[in-house]
Amino acid sequence: MASSESQAPDILTVDVEDWFHILDLESSPDRARWSKLDSRVLLNTERLIEIFDGHQAKATFFVVGWVAWKHPEVVRAIADAGHEVACHSFWHELVPHHSRESFRADIRAARSLLQDLSGQAVDGFRAPGWSIGPEQTWAFEELLEAGFRYDASLVPGKVSHGGYGHKIQIPHRIQCNAGELLEIPTPTARFGPWRVPYSGGGYLRFFTYNFIKRSAKRTRQLGGPVVIYVHPREIDPDQPRMKMPFKRRFKYYVGLKGTRGKLDRLLENNSFTSIKEWLDQAPDQNLESIDVRDQSGAEPRPNPERIPPMPPVGLGAEAHG
Ligand SMILES: [Zn+2]
Which of the chain's ends, N or C, has fewer CB atoms near its CB within 10 Å? Predict the structure, then answer.
């Protein structure tokens, strides 16, 4: 494998959800309709696995619990190919829309189902839309108490559904009332007056390869890995399109045909590993730490109408509790 742009491995992640799991959109189908839609998640996840295998890259797949429940073969395909299975919540709901109870039930049901299906310990969590901000530090306590070891939900910058806005671009620790959680943030780059992600999703599709390469170099100079994130739908130019305002349509569908090429080029020029393997190799004594113990007592105040339902019962041993 060529490694002309970097020596230390970077991190490769996938948020495993279907083409209709788009956040906060009026035309998004109700949960009750999800099962009736044509699913493309298995096909596209298998394509990603094949691409990664072609470059001997290992990845962390953050799987939506609902996807695992309806399409368990997706989780088995990921685990059988030797990749890490992690958790992207059960209902793919933004964290600020959760009560503490609904968030607890959601992440525990998803984790236990994913462990049952993969035969792996599920250590990692990423919130839908990176929606853990300074108002949601209570979520760190829930993650630790549910058995997670690391979180990958923070963005040191601003994104449409969140962004923690802190300064740390590289893996660090979070001290909360329940103990210490590791954080693998998605690094950002300066773009006009903002700091935005550059290494995944719409940003990866929109930015030029050279902009991504320069931004990646800066992240590595800070001592951190670049964290690539892709969604299975992003390598699928044939997916059904959802109705949405122009700005969102641009964000979701720009550059779909070019994603595959850009991803191949990144994989060709850098070596990638999963978060689990990266953590196993990282000298963790040098990680910086942020302390949220003062804030993490604050309780969520969700709109009662937005709180998602409890996950279905009987998904795994812990879900009964
Ligand atoms: Zn997502």
Answer: C
Give, as residue ranges, everything with CB less than 5 Å from ion ligand 1. 15, 128
Provide the pLDDT for residue 317.
52
Domain that holds residue 131: 10-22+36-314
Q: What percent of the chain has pLDDT over 70?
A: 94
Centroid of ligand 1 to alpha carbon of 62 (angstroms): 9
Residue 152 in contact with residue 143, Cβ under 8 Å? no
| The residue to which tokens 């970097």 are assigned | 6
CA 16 – ligand 1 centroid, Å:
7
**Assigned domain for 5 exists:** no
The pTM score is: 0.94
Q: Which helix (H) or strand (E) holds 182?
A: strand 179-183
- Comparing C-alpha atoms, which of 86, 34, 26, 91 is closest to residue 62? 86
Task: Say how many Å lie between the CA of residue 248 and the centre of ligand 1.
Answer: 15
pLDDT of residue 295: 80
Residue pLDDT, tens place only, 77-93: 999 999 999 999 999 99
Measured in angstroms, how far is the CA atom of residue 87 from the centroid of ligand 1? 10
Residues 6+ apart with CB under 8 A from 317: 112, 116
10 Å CB burial of residue 124 (0-12, 13-18, 19+) is buried
What is the Å distance from ligand 1's center to 137 Cα?
19
Please give the distance, rounded to the nearest whole angstrom, from the Cα atom of residue 14 to the centre of ligand 1: 9
pLDDT at 319: 42
CA dihedral 60, 63, 69, 71 (to 10 degrees): -70
Rounded to the nearest angstrom, the distance between the alpha carbon of 91 and the centre of ligand 1 is: 10
- In the chain, the number of structural domains is 1
- In a domain, residue 30? The reply is no
100 in a structural domain = yes
CATH of the domain at 138: 3.20.20.370
Is position 118 within any domain? Answer: yes
2 Cα to the center of ligand 1, angstroms: 31
Q: In this predicted model, which residue has the larger pLDDT, 250 or 139?
A: 139
